[in-house]
């Protein structure tokens, strides 16, 4: 197999083969299966960015890396290690491409030299049980709700009750949310390296989702559950973020990050408080790494120690 040319003709396959056969971390040990899945998703995101800008793995330069990081930083909370993880992966990838003569230079060298892990990662933001309960009450529809408020309550109900990501919500179809029968749930289709999953929806989310679906009962099953107001395409992240921020402000929650991520963290922490294991909660989130859940578990331990 000519793996060198494969990086140009089938980059995703070439990256997978490299990860499985050769790639190692800073400790010179092969990456775990979980890490390889994460790296595949990261590589896919980088490659999509390059293709969208007319570049390839053999031609991209520092300007493409800069534009990629600009895009990443608009979607990630301040203080996270996302940029560093991508910088190190890019450096590792480019060094390999230079070694096999796909590239003549490594444009990530100067970037990774100035990156460092934060001394203390900021704790994850979430709603404590009291605030969680208040928001659960906020999502309940009233008799005076207009269409916009019905939509907003349903969006928050699905994020808070299902623990799905903002991007997963944007792709959710009507048929994916089942509120009839003995076990209402949201089905999250396979996306990239993430396997499909089904999350049971708690009772507090049912009324809002039923009201929203009934208000659009004539829509096809495969139609988006939350289309954009004007053109029917997927709702954008700006509007989605505003919906969540307004809901959080309505219950008196103010924080540096008031994005859908807070609701996902709250969902996960609620599972841990109910007795679920890290493994079960990670699976419900559709993640392959326990890192997020472990950090949330630590907040519970710290809270107990402070009593």
From TrEMBL:
The portions of this protein that span the membrane are none
Question: Mind listing the GO molecular function terms for this protein?
Answer: DNA binding
Q: Does the keyword Phosphoprotein apply?
A: no
Q: Output the InterPro entries linked to this UniProt entry.
A: DNA_brk_join_enz, Integrase-like_cat_sf, Integrase_catalytic
Q: Where is the Tyr recombinase domain?
A: 120-307
Keyword terms of this UniProt record = DNA recombination
Q: Has the keyword Acetylation been applied to this entry?
A: no
Q: Name one GO biological process term.
A: DNA recombination
Name of this chain's protein? Site-specific recombinase XerC
């Amino acid at each position: 197999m000519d793996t060198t040319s494969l990086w140009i003709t089938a980059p995703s396959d070439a990256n997978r083969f490299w990860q499985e056969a050769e790639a190692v971390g800073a400790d010179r040990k092969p990456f775990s299966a979980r890490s390889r899945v994460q790296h595949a998703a990261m590589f896919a995101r980088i490659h999509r960015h390059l293709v969208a800008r007319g570049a390839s793995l053999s031609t991209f330069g520092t300007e493409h890396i800069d534009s990629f990081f600009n895009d990443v930083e608009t979607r990630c909370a301040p203080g996270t290690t996302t940029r560093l993880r991508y910088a190190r992966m890019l450096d590792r990838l480019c060094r390999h491409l230079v070694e096999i003569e796909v590239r003549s230079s490594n444009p990530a060298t100067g970037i990774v030299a100035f990156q460092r892990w934060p001394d203390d990662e900021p704790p994850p933001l979430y709603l404590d049980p009291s605030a969680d309960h208040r928001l659960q009450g906020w999502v309940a529809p009233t008799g005076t709700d207009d269409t916009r408020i019905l939509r907003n309550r349903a969006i928050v109900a699905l994020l808070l009750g299902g623990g799905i990501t903002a991007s997963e919500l944007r792709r959710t179809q009507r048929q994916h949310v089942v509120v009839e029968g003995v076990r209402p749930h949201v089905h999250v289709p396979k996306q990239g390296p993430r396997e499909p999953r089904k999350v049971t929806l708690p009772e507090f989310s049912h009324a809002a989702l039923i009201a929203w679906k009934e208000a659009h009962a004539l829509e096809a099953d495969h139609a988006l559950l939350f289309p954009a107001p004007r053109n029917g395409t997927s709702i954008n992240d700006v509007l989605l973020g505003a919906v969540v921020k307004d809901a959080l402000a309505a219950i008196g929650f103010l924080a540096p990050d008031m994005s859908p991520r807070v609701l996902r963290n709250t969902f996960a922490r609620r599972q841990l408080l109910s007795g679920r294991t890290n493994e079960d909660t990670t699976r419900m989130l559709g993640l392959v790494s326990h890192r997020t859940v472990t950090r949330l578990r630590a907040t519970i331990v710290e809270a107990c120690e402070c009593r």
